[in-house]
Design goal:
alpha/beta; 5-stranded parallel β-sheet
């Protein structure tokens, strides 16, 4: 939002014309309608006056010595603090190309001389009102942004405070399972295990929220090491084995290690998120989840293909957006209810890679991401002062 304050009482108009008689005539008329009017007889004087005390609107002649109206307008539009001031050209030039050039320089309107004062007044009022509405819209937008920041800060604080107790709950569930193997029935142990898995998912969701916020603000530092993606994928499959009930997992590791320079923990969480989505949308009882790794000269691609309902083309980018919720018409389910895929996108991009989904409605979805073998490109250093 620019720094000038729109006058709520008496709008100010600056007239720029090298003919004093024109200035005197129009100035008197506008003052009679309650406007605060100033005048400048050259482009250079006009620019000084505008910078010292920005008006709400400018009436600008074109044909002037030293600096014509086009040049004056172009200089205004190049100034961040002045570019929002509306400029109405008031000129004796009537050719279409003159008008095109005026609008190209940044003018909002064009009035030809000789003019009818009623027309000038109507256009001045219209553009002042448009500017007022634009300012109000900007103010409301700024207020909404502040409210959004407050909301995000509150959510961040709550989520941060949730992580510790959830981690404790997951730990105690694990202890119960280890200590009660000979005391509880198989069903009871399974119930505790389910509760533990659900708690781990909550911890994962909390971590996704916090880390997504860090990545958006550029505060997430990657701990880069040599990582074998095949090994990470196998470990994640093993760690999530209890969630695969009734679903077949197909994965054949490549013969050679698929090594990249990456943050092992972050990459593992990306894979876990994609596996979690695949489990969620692959039917229990005969559904197949296929995982793959393809290594090229400078990239390694990991893919996770489910047997779910698929995703319509118009939603394939939206599901990676923050808090996006995409309802799948086939099963009336929501593909993303939080930040899992947003976290994946930010995490992969932070590594210098890319992520996407190939899908066809009714035939499942294949989520994939690619990471550069040599890790993210180093950030350019700012030029020395």
């Amino acid at each position: 939002m620019d720094e000038q304050i729109y006058s709520k009482t008496t709008p100010s108009v600056l007239m720029v014309d090298d003919t004093p008689a024109n200035l005197e005539l129009l100035s008197g008329m506008l003052k009679g309608r309650g406007y605060k009017v100033r005048a400048a007889v050259s482009g250079e004087l006009a620019l000084r006056a505008i910078r010292n005390d920005p008006p709400d609107l400018i009436l600008l002649d074109i044909t002037m010595p030293d600096m014509n109206g086009y040049e004056v307008c172009a200089k205004l539009k190049a100034d961040e603090k002045l570019k929002e001031i509306p400029v109405i050209f008031l000129s004796a030039l009537t050719e279409t190309m003159d008008k095109v050039k005026a609008f190209g320089a940044g003018g909002v309107d064009y009035i030809t001389k000789p003019f009818q004062f009623e027309e000038v007044e109507a256009r001045v009022e219209t553009h002042l009102e448009l500017r007022r509405q634009k300012r109000l819209l900007q103010e409301n937008h700024d207020k909404l942004r502040e409210l959004e920041k407050t909301r995000d800060s509150l959510v961040h604080m709550i989520i941060h405070d949730l992580r510790s107790p959830l981690t404790v709950i997951a730990g105690y569930h694990q202890l119960i399972i280890e200590d009660a193997k000979n005391k509880l029935s198989a069903d009871s142990i399974n119930h505790v295990a389910e509760a533990m898995n659900a708690t781990k998912q909550l911890v994962q969701m909390v971590s996704d929220v916090l880390d997504t916020s860090k990545m958006e603000e550029g505060q997430m530092k990657l701990k880069l090491t040599e990582c074998d993606l095949s090994r990470i994928l196998e470990e994640d499959i093993s760690g999530m084995k209890s969630l695969f009930k009734g679903r077949e997992i197909q994965f054949t590791p490549p013969e050679s290690p698929a090594t990249v320079l990456a943050d092992r923990e972050i990459v593992s969480r990306v894979i876990q998120n994609l596996l979690g989505n695949a489990i969620k949308f692959t039917p229990n009882g005969g559904g197949i989840i296929r995982l793959g790794i393809e290594a090229a000269a400078d990239l390694v691609r990991v893919s996770v293909k489910d047997s779910g309902p698929g995703i319509a083309l118009k939603y394939r980018k939206k599901i990676f957006e923050k808090f996006a919720q995409v309802e799948l018409s086939a099963v009336h389910q929501r593909y993303s209810t939080g930040l899992g895929l947003t976290f994946c996108k930010l995490a992969v991009e932070a590594h210098g890679g890319r992520i996407g989904v190939d899908s066809e409605e009714g035939k499942g979805s294949c989520f994939w991401f690619e990471l550069p073998v040599d890790g993210p490109a180093p950030r350019a250093r700012p030029p020395a002062k």
